[in-house]
């Protein structure tokens, strides 16, 4: 048995915030209260001055497995997640092959059994990420998919998206959208503005995000589907989602740590390491995302953990891939930029990193209570 002593135990799901001890036996919480140390415990952890929290849930990660395991794989990704305090993650479907087949999903679910965390999988929306033919959504749900997403690519045909929403609605599943219209992008990974002009590039106009968020909110209103906007990056998109929520439309959004921590100027300092889709935008956008988190317009923090090989990121800017890692730094960035600045309490931060993402995808909410 393990005794964790004197920790500040915070569980947003039950509004628990108290200093107490936890007794853990065979991986489950056996007792909660105040206990004396004794030889009955195999290990005693003094958590004085520390916080004991539920495991974090990241509903947007790329473990690059199968097909791109020189960047990351299930084992290395799970270790990074555990290191950052994440006990549950959802892997996106842009693997090779694409996660659009129930048999492949079944094979991947067998491979996760010995990992140190719980790993779930998103199903593609379209076969082969081509945006033309829907996957067998019912079969993918039965095989264990927890949401549908073509993350990495936008779904451009309105009629296709409408039908996807109808089917996902009937299955009580969430559609998770990467909102970037390529018509407004000349060089991906950098915001169209002052910094891109300084670098001699056009970049990605904010309208790339806005046009698709606008469309998908309208379709969600029409179809009564549940939709989720990934890695929101612009102040206008935050305002759109706030208005949609006021109208009762079932739309949620996530903020990635890099979007509430950095702005477009990071590209000048960090080069391709600060290249991601959607890009880092202006300081006003960063502050609007923080305000959205503070006002619960944005209820979820998700990393979009997207590793690449070192030699890929060392290419010239326009040829390097977009993506940034985040699992090991998400908590510290949240504390630095949201809690210490007074925008969120530590309990609110934990809620957005644990309870809220689990609820959105109908996963079991991590809790601190006897039996968990």
Descriptive labels:
alpha/beta, single chain, globular, 4-stranded parallel sheet, 5-stranded mixed sheet, 372 residues
Structure overview:
The protein has 372 residues and is an alpha/beta fold. Helix content is 33%, strand content 17%. The protein contains 14 helices and twelve strands. The protein has helices at 74-83, 102-111, 137-143, 158-170, 194-198, 207-223, 235-246, 257-261, 266-270, 283-294, 310-313, 330-339, 346-353, 355-360, and strands at 2-11, 16-25, 28-33, 43-46, 51-52, 56-61, 86-91, 118-121, 174-177, 226-229, 251-255, 300-301. Strands 1, 2, 3, 4 and 5 form a five-stranded mixed beta sheet that branches. The protein has a four-stranded parallel beta sheet with strand order 9-10-11-12. β2 and β3 form a beta hairpin. It is globular, with a radius of gyration of 21 Å.
Average pLDDT number: 97
Poorly predicted parts: none
* Beta-strand residue fraction: 15-25%
Instruction: Describe the main β-sheet briefly.
Output: 5 strands, mixed
What is the terminal separation in angstroms?
15 Å
Tally the beta strands: 12
Helix content percent band? 25-40%
Whole-angstrom Rg? 21 Å
H and E string: EEEEEEHEHEHHEHHEHEHHHEHHHH
Dominant shape: globular
Structural class: alpha/beta
Number of helices: 14
């Amino acid at each position: 048995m393990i005794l964790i002593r004197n920790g500040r135990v915070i569980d947003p799901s039950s509004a628990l915030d108290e200093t107490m001890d936890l007794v853990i036996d065979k991986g489950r919480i056996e007792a909660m209260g105040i206990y004396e140390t004794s030889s009955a415990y195999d290990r005693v952890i003094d958590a004085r001055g520390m916080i004991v929290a539920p495991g974090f849930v990241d509903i947007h990660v790329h473990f690059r497995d199968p097909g791109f395991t020189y960047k990351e794989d299930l084992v290395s990704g799970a270790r990074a997640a555990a290191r950052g305090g994440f006990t549950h993650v959802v892997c996106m479907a842009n693997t090779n092959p694409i996660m659009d087949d129930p048999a492949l999903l079944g094979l991947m679910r067998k491979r996760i059994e010995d990992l140190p965390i719980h790993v779930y999988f998103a199903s593609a929306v379209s076969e082969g990420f081509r945006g033309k033919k829907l996957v067998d959504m019912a079969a993918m749900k039965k095989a264990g998919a927890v949401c549908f997403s073509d993350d990495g690519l936008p779904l451009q045909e309105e009629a296709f998206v409408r039908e996807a929403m109808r089917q996902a609605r009937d299955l009580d599943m969430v559609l998770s959208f990467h909102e970037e219209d390529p018509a407004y992008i000349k060089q991906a990974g950098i915001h169209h503005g002052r910094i891109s002009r300084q670098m001699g590039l056009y970049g990605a106009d904010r309208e790339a995000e806005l046009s698709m968020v606008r469309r998908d909110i309208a379709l969600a209103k029409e179809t009564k589907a549940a939709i989720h906007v990934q890695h929101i990056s612009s102040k206008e998109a935050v305002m759109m989602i706030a208005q949609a929520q006021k109208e009762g439309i079932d739309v949620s959004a996530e903020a990635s740590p890099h979007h509430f921590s950095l702005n477009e100027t990071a590209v000048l300092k960090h080069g391709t390491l600060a290249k991601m889709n959607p890009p880092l935008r202006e300081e006003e956008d960063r502050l609007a995302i923080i305000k959205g988190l503070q006002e619960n317009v944005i209820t979820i923090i998700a990393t979009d953990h997207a590793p690449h090989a070192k030699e890929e990121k060392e290419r010239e800017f326009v040829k390097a891939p977009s993506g940034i890692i985040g699992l090991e730094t998400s908590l510290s960035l949240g504390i630095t930029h949201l809690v210490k600045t007074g925008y969120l309490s530590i309990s609110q931060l934990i809620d957005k990193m644990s309870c809220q993402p689990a609820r959105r995808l109908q996963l079991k909410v991590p809790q601190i209570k006897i039996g968990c």
